Amino acid sequence: MKHLSACTSVLVGKNASIDGSVMIARNDDTFLPLTPQRFYMHQPAETEGKILQSTQNGFEAPLPKNAVRYQATPNVEVDKVGLYEESGINAHNVAMSATESVYGNPNALAFDPLVEDGMAEDTMQTMVLPVITSARNGVQVLGELIKKYGSPEGNGVLFADKDEAWYMEIVTGHHWVAQRVPDDAFVITANQVAIRTVDFDDPDNFMYSDGIQAFVSEHHLNPDQSGWNFRHIFGTSTEKDRHYNTPRVWYGQRYLMPEGKQSPTSSELPFICHANRKISVADISFILGSHYNETDYDPLGNGPAELKTKFRPIAMNRTQNSHVLQLRNNVPEAQSAVMWLCFGVPAFSPFVPFFANANDTDPSYVNTPVHADEESAYWMYRKLSVLVESRYAEFVQDDRDYLTACQELFTHHLANTDEVAAKLSGEELTTYLTQQNYLIVSEMKSRTTKLMNDLFEHGLELSKLTFNMDVNL
Q: What confidence tens digit (pLDDT) does each residue in 63-85 have?
């Protein structure tokens, strides 16, 4: 099974956030050329009695019973590049984002090899999200599926509900560890085994595969003089990690802990972190849209040429979607779950809020074609990204002003919707939240189209094919 993802993930506990929300977030990156995606609301009847078949590695399994409604962001060309539903929140207000590709080391994989036709990223979200009832239950359900089917790749998986966030790392064919993010903490990961010390006597905060301690002991896999460090035992620490992975974690931690003095190439960056302030959706959006801003490593900045391409940035042109899954605790539960979804390059495109308690999704998000068009949200935001980057010095401030105005719009939109929604219940509430999702899509299409037209007109004035005639001739 070929790894198709190269993502960056953020998890935030409820006491670490500005409004008491639990949040999980990720850039869904790919090594492939453009892989168009759509945003879809699955209904329970769609999965009843059906068999899920991977188009990538031959995995096959019956879809779970007792499924509930859930959001998904699948690929458009399923037969060609796989399903990959990636991210969403279900009707139980449980969020899941899968996956963050991680890599086990050859010593561990030699004794528990990857299972070629096991359950991989392309089918994982579809097998798990429709049935889980809490973040902890998500780890349990996925753990049982890995035990049954095995894994063909290393994966980091994010789960959240209104109380807890969990990060689970599957590192060999059958072995994994999951850790609960402390309520006052945040976590940033980037394609490298991240969990460190595991306390096997603390079931409230750790879960793990059957027999993992005996497996490590039997095969002499623990390199440390003392302790049980999951990253050291199962992970990697290579030159590639220090140029491709650790710098992204370093930058995200630096943004939230500016007083820290870490190195971007350190193999010992912490897993559990504590910010110097309360964390907002805007903070997470900035991290996921960042490219070493205001450092010499920024490929769009003014640093030395050799440093501008030294490290892989977080935001990339091959980010297929970026999302923040927010479970709020300051509003009634029926309206609390919000998926902030960014199509396009997150450095230039907005994270649009969608209430999870909705019946369907605007057609511009559902009906994404394979090639660029004039109607779909996916291609609209991709076009915006290309346009801004093509004349970055001239266009970036206009884009920043647009994103700032969007942030203000979204804050008002959620506040106004919450006020009305608090007086509704049942199907009436679901219908109202669905309408509000449609409303924000319409407003964003209008604003984004205007910005692109303005940038286009400005671009005409920047052509080098011009000549100013002397007025005296």
A: 999 999 999 999 999 999 999 99
